[in-house]
Protein: Ribosomal-protein-alanine N-acetyltransferase
Organism: Natrinema ejinorense
Amino acid sequence: MTTPVPEDGEGMSIRPAERADLLAVVRIENASFSQPWPHDAFDRFLGEPGFLVAEADGEVVGYVVADVTQQIGRALGHVKDIAVHPDHRGNGVGSRLLSRSLGVLAAHGVGTVKLEVRRSNDGAKRLYGKFGFDPLRRVPEYYGDGEDAIVMIRKLG
């Protein structure tokens, strides 16, 4: 059963991830991906301003991991991982997380944001397209199972 998230965001909040959220984040990751990140990968991103969770009724229902790196003297944002619990998909949680993460990256001086998405993940590619991400290039066999990635970018500001 899908649990709706109210349109006005009432009942759902997006906040920085905390150590206490990691078990829920890993559970969502495991339910979402065939090659999930391990717990310690998320642990390394704690404290990053772009590691955010969506919480509804006291429960973590989604997360996004994004960071900022310097490349040729410019701040580059990288959305590394985003997922929503299967029971909460289709209700705008992913859009809210992505929107908030882009705002955080912009506030940290990022001019361009990139991400990688599985070539077969049409739903994610549609979401990223709605947010102004354009395909840049294909990376053959990017994922451990041999699937190609599509690198997508978006200019901010």
About this structure: The CA atoms of residues 89 and 134 lie 23 Å apart.
